[in-house]
Each structure stands twice: as structure tokens, then as C-alpha cells.
Design goal:
The complex is a heterotrimer. By secondary structure, chain A is α+β, with helices and mostly antiparallel strands. In chain A, α2 packs across α3, α2 packs parallel to α4 and α3 crosses α4. Chain A has eight helices and 20 strands. In chain C, a hairpin with a 5-residue loop joins β1 and β2. The N terminus of chain C is likely disordered. The chains are: A alpha+beta, B alpha/beta, C mainly alpha.
Chain lengths: 366, 357, 424
Amino acid sequence: MKDTGQNTAFVEFKSVQKSYDGVSLVVKDLNLAIKKGEFLTMLGPSGSGKTTCLMMLAGFETATNGEILLDGRPINQVPPHKRGIGMVFQNYALFPHMTVGENLAFPLEVRGMGKSEREEKINRALDMVQMGDFSHRRPAQLSGGQQQRIALARALVFDPAVVLMDEPLGALDKQLREHMQYEIKHLHNSLGISVVYVTHDQGEALTMSDRIAVFDDGRIQQLASPQELYERPQNSFVAGFIGENNRIMGTLVSVKGDHARVKLQTGEVITAAAVNVTTPGQQTMVSVRPERATILTNGDQDDLQTLDAEVIEVVYMGDLFRTVLKVAGNENFVVKTRNTTGQNLLTPGQKVKIGWVASDARALDP
Amino acid sequence: MRKLLILSTALTTVGFAASAEQVTVMSWGGAYGVSQVEAYNKPFTAATGIPSTMVDSDNPATPIKAMVEAGNVTIDVADVELSDAIRLCDEGMLEVIDHAALPDGADGTPALEDFVDGALMSECAVANIVWSTVFAYDTTKTSGVKSLADFYDLAKYPGKRGLRKGAKANLEMALMADGVPAAGVYDLLATEAGVARAFAKLDTIKSDVVWWEAGAQPPQLLADGEVVMTTAYNGRIFNAAVGEGKPFEIVWDGQIMDFDLFVIPKGTPNKDAAMKYVAFATGTQPLADQARYISYGPARKSSAPFVGKFKDDKTDMGPQMPTAAANLSNALANDFAFWADRDTELSERFNSWLLSN
Amino acid sequence: MTHADQPDQGQEPELLRTADGLLLQTALNRVSRRAKIKAFLLVLPLLAFILVSFVAPIGQMLLRSVNNDQFYSNMPELTLWFADKEFGVEPDEMAFTALAADLTFAAKERTAGSVGTRVNYDLPGSRSLFTSAARKAKGLNPPFKDAFIKINKDWVDPELWAAMHAASATYTSSFYLAAVDRKRDTDGSIIQVDENRRIYVQLFWRTLWLSGLIAVLCLLLGFPVAHLLATLPMRKASLLMILVLLPFWTSLLVRTTAWMVILQGQGVFNNILVSLGIVADDNRFELMYNQTGSIVAMTHILLPFMILPLYSVMRTIPPSYARAARSLGATSWTTFRRIYLPQTIPGIGAGGLLVFILAVGYYITPALVGGASGQLISNQIAFHMQDSLNWSMASALAAILLAAVLVLYWLYDRLIGIDNMKLG
């Protein structure tokens, strides 16, 4: 269901701006199109504007400027209860004075659905989240994970075309959270609904999404598939926010095609992929993923860009080693190596060389 | 145990430590309280050196029962109404006062003869003033009101009436308004027919009555324009009219006279000083002096010649007294014995009448 | 453990012991006892305070409502005579002899008034019989029956003897009977009092009805205010909260008087209406010194007691419930009715009960602004406490009121559940 081939947007934000106080903008000129059946995640630190966008879509906030379209129709003037959008809240928001069954019946009742039809839909929704036996419990009698499933079932029971999820897994412990991620993803695949998911957890976003919109400072910094986002961050914020990242500061010497020459603070000149740097002489930050750097104990390797390094610390993490090195003035350069048989252990103070494929280093704005 | 329990109720009345000889007097406050401080307390302390304190209460008779029963008497002299004095005396709550030991009048008349009739009726009390329940009207709203019958004449004098919320005085006045002469009121009221007649008369104005409870309310009701006529204590109307210049006029027809008396709660630690105070305060001159501040009549005949002008030194107090000859043409003396017997019954009946529509 | 009865049946289950051989249960008790004693000592001052300031006065009140010693402790001989007599027995010479002896004693001790007052409660008009007879008691000669008849023929009235008989009992129900407009007939059966003396039952109903009405009015007015308080930003909410609490800091009398100034016939409200030409000058609204006055003033005075519990409940209801309901397709009215309102029930219950119970006991406000039709039962209690000095009657009325409130509390517990009550 990843791509239905429909290129027409199902949900669309057009030049949307939002201000609460009339002085500053929380959302600055947002343009975003979400396809039918797509799982789109809004990812960003708190205060980046992602939740505001979700609330505008749900109808709880009004856009100060711009337009939001649902299935081609502008919905700015449509009240929340007429939008037909399912929503899962951070604290689940299950009605505490109703049983699970009544919670699920609520959206069907307000739509005037008959009792038998209701029962059928409720049972189907509960089975879908494997909670068929809990219909008569109260929310307070359920665990966090169970409440989460009920909230999910309630948001889906009336067959909405879009489901919004506002950090739905934030309150769960790590293990349960990972489990629920797969379940939500699975439900999304089997139901074919569009999901707009808000989180500040990049791991969650990478696991579940078709596309991720990275928010910062009221703007989308990059909108791309998880892989693209991880492999090819478009600026230093995205590079830093998604995954672990080593930063080496330097000055741009020249740009040729998509190759850039960068002079590091310690004097070495290295080659890196030019991403959003253009002018020679400007400050730049070279970003290298920890798993893409290799520790060379046997001298240089021609196909790699190499630098001198000194081991500061080696942390044993089971499946891998995490080695902290001093590289080009950066004393916190991390390299992750797989734990293979017969590996030579490095000792702190040891002089080594590290190397990486030149295109894996990305020269970004500082 | 019982005493201990009663104590918890009595604790609400503030306790005054009584170490040296002193007198604490509980009275009704307001202009009346002021008159007593000026005419009795200050001269008493000056003459005897015994300090005296004045304490206000809505009805000084009320705390006496609680204090005596708890054995924690904190006031030495109380100013109470006649029916309360008699009831408390009968119940053994008061010290007996030797009336013969009271000082002679200024003209040499022995005390027993100097006091007006009924002033020494209870062996536990000495009357200090005669006051009365009268009715008064606002001269800017209506005029020509002469008699109690006019009070009940809504057609001729339209407007709200103020009445005290209680049976006492209202029933007597209703009968007098209905044409019963003062002398026959209590005889008639002792019969069921008389009570029924009184209530029937009250029925005629019931829907136009504003009920008051505290003595300060009637002048306020008149001043606010809430009523055009109201029954009231004569001193309160006098003070509003003369003291504050309000356009109020008292109608003396059908006035009901009553005494205020000094009593001494049983078991007071300052019994001797209290006796001295009562003897001093009910002397000829202090009784005459208090009339300088409020229009209540002295209970001694010998005080009458000494009654002068109001504190503004303009108004003659003599004609303002309930006991002035001109005001006595159709006056009724409150029958304490009648009310001691029938108060409970008639109060219940009155309350029941109030509730029914 | 009933093993002693069946010594041969089964074996004791093996009891766990601590390392040094003590029974585990014993060791546990020993440790927890110390904690319990400490906890008890901490609450002891409060317990003592409640006993002295609350339980004792209430106990005294309940005792007074059934026990009035004014008659039996001052009339010992006659009380003894009554002790083994049926209700309604005609008094014989023995009875009058006892009466003469008691009255002679009462005259000396100055207690005849007290005795008369007590009998007068049950039989109005009889007080002076005792005070006047006591004055003459010393000079009476046998046969006493004739002597008493000579003083006043009412002394052989069977109603008088029934009343004295009732008053001679250590414990009496007559004050409770009077409090529900009943009395005992001369043969001991319970009958209603004359129609023109029936007040209390009517007053009890009026008190309950008005208090209920006031609680409902407080709810209707307080609900939106509490909601606003709970949803406004902190700074504005604090300001509004001060406005809500302001009446608390003003004297009750000042507030009541303020209402008098506003609502009376010549008051601000009527003057405005007249000057606007809405009502004629001679046809002003009567809003004061009647039931309306009581309702308006009491609703205002009790409003904070409704708002505060409601506010504390509403503050804990996250806005996400309402949002969830809206997103699920509910209109704002449905959201309020089915989601918000049910969750505020603990606050509504607490506020309603609080306002109701306070209103039931109010007396200053209705006394000042209630006129005749706005009087409540507490005004009668005050009357008996302060004016008639019939404390037993006041106690009986208060006890009935207390019982009514307790019944209500019990009902509330059954219907909503006390656990569900939230006072803030």
C-alpha cells in the first residue's frame, strides 16, 4: 500500500501560517501534500510546530493564513466533528466514565448508527487490536498498552479516511513502544488509511513512516523517505536530529560538481559531498555517520579518505564496539564497529587512522 | 457533666476576669446604651471609684440563663424587659434586690413610693425607664394620621406598614385599632374570641406588612421609603426625628408602655458592687439625666422635675416622654402576667399565622 | 481457630517463625504496634478537640431534646406519685398533698417559675397557675384538693395533669412531638395540634425545598463560572478566582445588607427599572422581605461553595476528552452532555450537598431579608434558643434537621457514592 499510484494529494496544506499571539509565527508558510494511504510522520523537537499542524488539521486550531484541503475540499470552516478524521491522543483520552464498549460505540452513536451495526463494528475493531474480551472493562482497569489499543480501535471504528496520531506511544515503556510501532504499521498496511503521525522520537519515525517531515522553527526542514532522510540529510539540523552524527568543522576551499574540498581546523584538506555549501571560504560542517567510518590499523587505504586519530575510549556494547576518538580537533568522534571474531582490541592513547568513502562525508551549513 | 456541657454553650459569651471590684453592665447598645453610659456609668464611677463597663447585646436577658446554669456569670447587671425579669426571677436566675434599701427620692419620698406603679413589681428587679411601642409615619409621604385605626386604614393611607415580627404588642394594637378601649384589651385577649379578632384585624393589612425584628430597623425602613408607617420603640423614632432630623412623626394613640429594669444575675462575683450600681443608677438624678439622651421616661416620679432638654439643648424632653400627660390619653400598660402565660402559645400561633397565606 | 473443639482433626498448619524463634505474626504485631501508637498520638489532639467542641455539644443537644429536668427535679413528691400511675389517672388527695408539699418547697427555692415554664411548654397558659399557687402554698390546709380548687379551678383540669405527668418523666418525647406539630391527648394518644398552631412541619418542608432550589440555582450559575476558571490561562484565572472569593472576605452582614439596598422596593434595582419605564412607580417588584429576597441573597452567599468543588474537579478534566469527542463526530452540545457533564458529577455532588446543607442551617440572612414568607426552620430554632428560652424545643428541632441531613447524605451515598465526592 506504500504507493497507490495516485499522485493527487489527499490532505494538503497550502501556505499555512499560524500565530497565537499576533507577534510571532509558530508555523511559517507550510506546504505539504499527503497522499491517500500514506503514512506521514511529522518529526521534530518540541515547539517546532508539528503538533500545531496536526491540531489545525483536526480542526482544534484555526490557521491564521493559508488553506487546508481534505480530499480536495477546503476545510478551514468545517468544525472538527464534521471532518471525519480519527484521532489518537497522547494520553489516549479514553472517556473514564464509559466502558471500552461504550467508548467505541460513542462515535457510532453520534452518527446515528443502529445497535446491531454498532455491535458488529465494535467487535471487529476490538478484534483488530486483539482486545475482543475487554468490552466491559473500564479504561482505568486497563494497562497503558491496552488503553493504547482501545484508543486506536476507537479512532478507527468509524472508518475515517485519515487518522491523526499525536505522540500516541509516548507514555509506554520502550519494549511495548516498539511492539506497538509494528502493530500500528501493520494496521495501516492492512486498512489502507492515511495516517499523520506526530512524534519527537526519530527511531519511531524511521521505523513506521512512508515519508517523514522534519520540523524545526515552524518550517519543514526536509520531507523525504526514512532512508533518504538518514542517508542524505539536506542540512545540519536534519543530520543532527536523525541518527548519530560526527561533526568536523572546516572551511570550504572549492566546490566542483557535487564534490567539495574542505580544509579542516587542523590543516588537512578532505573531499566531501557538497550538499548546501556553495561559496569558497565559508564555514562548513562535515558530517560522517559513525557506522560509515572505519578504523584502519594497517595504514592508509587508497579508496578511502583518511585522517589521523587517537583512541580515547572504547565502549563494549555487545553486538558492537563504540570507539571514541580524537579526530581533527574533535574529541568526540564516534566510530561503531561490529563485534566480529578475532578482533584486535584498541587501547586508549593508541594512534590509529580512520577512513571513510568520500561521498559518505557531507559538507553542510555549519 | 451537665454543667460542663452547658459550659461549651456559654463559652460563646466572652468571659471577663473579675479580680478587683468592678461592674459589667449589659444593655441594648445604640443611643440607649449611650444614654446609660453618660447618665449612670460615668457618674457612678466618679462617685464610688468602682470601674464600670458597658457591654452591648441584642437582648441582655438571653445570656443570663446560659451563664447562671453554667455557673460562669460574667456580667453583673443586665438591663431587661419586664416579662423577662419576672420569668428569670421565677426561675431563680436572679438575685433578690431589697427595694426598701434603695435611696429616697430627691424630694425625700421613700423609694417604695417614689417609683411609678409596677416599677418594683418584681423582687429581683428595679425599673429604670418607661418606654413604649408606638407607631410613627413619614410626614413627607402622608399626613393627618391620628389614631391606630388610621394605621390599619389602607384605603385612606395607602402604603406599606412596618410591624415587629412577634405577637407581643401587635395583638393589643390590633384590638385597639378595632375599637377596643385600652382598659379592656387584656380581658378580651384572654378569650379565644379576642385572639381571633386580633388576628382578623391583622389579616386586613397582612399583605402590606414589612416585618422588622431589631429596634434599629423601623427608622431605617421609614428612611428608605420601604414603609410609610411602622410600629417602633419611641426612643428610636425620637432619635431619628430630633437627633438626625428625619421627617418622622410619632402617634401616641394606643401606645403600649413597658419597663426596662436592672437585674443582677445570680452568682455574680461582684454582687455588692452590682447592688451599689443599681441603687445609684435608679436614683432621682441619674434617671433624669438619661432622658437628656433619649426619650424614655424615668421610672421615679421625683425625676420628672429634673427632666430638661435634649442634648442639643433645644428640644424639651418632657412632652417626648411616654408618660407625658398628653401622650397618655389612650395608653396601655404591658401586662407581664398575661404574656408570661400566653407567650409560647401566641408566638406559635402568630408564626403559624405568618406562614399561612 | 476452633481446633480446641476437635483435637483429633488434622494438624495445625506450620506457623512461620523469625530467625530468633518468635512467631512471625507476633513479631509483625510488635513492630506495627509501635507505628500505630505513634500515629494515634499524632491524631490525639484533633480527636480531643472534636470530642470537646463537636461531639459533646451535639450529645448535649440530643440529650436536652428528650430530657428536661425543670419539672421532675423541682417537684420530687409529685413525680414519685406519678411514677406508678397510668396515663390519665384522676388525681387523688395524695396527689394534691404531694403537689402542696412540692410547691411549698418550690416557693422557698424560687423554682416555681421554672416548673411552670416547663408545664407551659405542653399546656400554654398554665405557667401562672404554678407561680400564683406557690405564693400561697405555705398557707394551704388539708384537704388540699379543695384548697387548690379554691385557688383556681383549673387545678383539676385533666389536661393539666396529663401535662404534669408527661413532664415528670425523665425522658420525654413531647418536644419531638411538638416539633412535628403533634401533642399527646389526655389519654396519651398522639394527635395533631390545632390548625392555627401548626408551623414546624410546614417550615421543615419549606426549608428543604428552598435549600434544594438554592443548590440548583448555585449549580446553574456556578457551573459556567467554574468552567471558565478551569479553562482560562493561569493569570486570568487567578484574577477571576479572587472575584469568586471576594464575597468570602466580606462580612455576611455586609453582603446581606448590600442585597437589601439593591433589591428593596425603593432600592437600586427597582429605581433603575422605574427610571427606564419598565415598571410603574406604584407597581415596583417586591424582591425583598419575602422568599425571593431569601433565595437571591442566599444563592449569592453560597455560590463560592458550589464553584470551588466544581472548579477543582473541572481542572482535572484534560481538554483532550472534549477534543477526542469532537474528533469522533460529536457536536459541542453532545460533547458537553455525554462527556464533560458526567465527569463533573463528583463536583456537582459535592457542591450541591455543601450548599444544601449550609442553606438548611442558614438563619441570619433569612431573618434579615426573608420577611414572613422567607423564614426557615433555623429561625424557629433561634427563636427558641433566644426568645422563648425553650432549649429542649430548639434541640428537638435541630436534631430533626440533623437527621434529615444525615438521611440526605445517606441517599447521596447510595445514588452517587461518597467516594465520588470531591471537595477540592
